[in-house]
Design brief:
alpha+beta, five-stranded mixed sheet, 4 helices, 9 strands
Length: 215
């Protein structure tokens, strides 16, 4: 007996595309629609159950409605030379009157009542144009026009003390080695010495004169 034709509509119909990078969980959506006037049971299966997480992976789709199934690919080391062999199958059947025990419903289903659709998995890396604008700018603008402000790493222990001491030495140098400042200081010292000498001579002369008058 021929197998029953799938009554559910699938979007996408043939391929589940996962766009990398694959260093984190990558999620793609599968829309299941029920265009009939009867409720339909569904179940999602895969050839690589350890590599994917599917929510929901089974249930009942009411007549004339649809649901979204999230298929989550777990992180892995992507090899572009390795072709994906992973496949998914959406199995379905018209819901019986009693759906209280879905596990028993699937076990008791007859082969001619089951319908299925198969999809293959496709892994894609993002194209250069699909990258966010800020990443494109980082590759094209930054090398030609570096930022005015740069962030440096924190100095190692002891380095800050050395830099502070160097700074102190640099601040002392203009005070001791500047020729203009040294000359001004020398001239100032000579002026003070000359004034002191003149005062001493003046007091001596006055002392001699006063002594002669007293005699």
């Amino acid at each position: 007996m021929a197998k029953a034709e799938q009554v559910l509509s699938l979007e996408p119909q043939h391929e589940l595309k996962f766009k990398g990078p694959f260093t984190d969980v990558v999620t793609t959506n599968l829309k299941l629609g029920n265009p009939t006037d009867r409720n339909v049971c569904f179940k999602v299966k895969t050839t690589a159950p350890r590599r994917y997480c599917v929510r929901p992976n089974s249930g009942i789709i009411d007549a004339g409605t649809s649901i979204n199934v999230s298929v989550m690919l777990q992180p892995f080391d992507y090899d572009p030379n390795e072709k994906s062999k992973h496949k998914f199958m959406v199995q379905s059947m018209f819901a019986p009157a009693d759906t209280s025990d879905m596990e028993a419903v699937w076990k008791e289903a007859k082969p001619e009542e089951l319908m299925d659709s198969k999809l293959r998995c496709v892994f894609e890396l993002p194209a250069e144009n699909d990258k966010p604008a800020r990443f494109r700018c980082a590759q094209t603008i930054l090398p030609d026009s570096p930022p005015k402000y740069q962030i440096y790493p924190f100095p190692e222990k002891g380095a800050s003390n050395l830099k502070e001491e160097d700074g102190l030495r640099m601040r002392k140098v203009p005070q001791t080695n500047n020729p203009i400042s040294a000359s001004a200081a020398a001239v100032k010292d000579e002026g003070l010495s000359s004034r002191l000498l003149a005062l001493v001579v003046l007091f001596f002369v006055f002392g001699v004169i006063i002594g002669k008058i007293a005699l």
